[in-house]
Write a structure and sequence with these properties.
By secondary structure, the chain is α+β, with helices and mostly antiparallel strands. Helices cover 27% and strands 9% of the residues. It has a single domain, classed as Roll (Ubiquitin-like (UB roll)), CATH 3.10.20. It contains 3 helices and 3 strands, in the order H-E-E-E-H-H. The chain has a 3-stranded antiparallel β-sheet with strand order 2-1-3, covered by helices on one side.
């Protein structure tokens, strides 16, 4: 059994999702599963077979950054960059879940 995070990083070579605390507290491993935020270190990959899984690698479309990614750059929201993918995925999840405005408003 492998965590979804480990499968993403080690099997699929999608290394944008980061392993921080590995206890679900830091949010560095946040991804979207069926449009909802989860911390991928605390869930087994097998539990999400057939689900729509989105990682930071799938956020930019046709070479264009998502408006939320652009906002992070414009407002220097990057810090060291390690947690940024999880922060962006969490923000996109908030929007998708109706807890924030649209990406255009943000």
């Amino acid at each position: 059994r492998q965590s979804l995070l480990d499968v993403l990083r080690e099997t699929l070579d999608l290394t944008g999702t980061k392993k921080g605390c590995n206890t679900g507290a830091c949010g560095a491993c946040t991804i979207l599963v069926d449009g909802k935020r989860i911390v991928s270190c605390l869930t087994l990959a097998a539990m999400h077979e057939g689900a729509d899984i989105q990682t930071i690698e799938g956020v930019a479309k046709d070479g264009e950054l998502n408006p939320l990614q652009e906002a992070f750059i414009e407002h220097d929201g990057l810090q060291c960059g390690f947690c940024t993918p999880g922060q962006i995925m969490s923000g996109l999840g908030c929007i998708a879940e109706g807890h924030a405005g649209s990406t255009d408003e943000i």
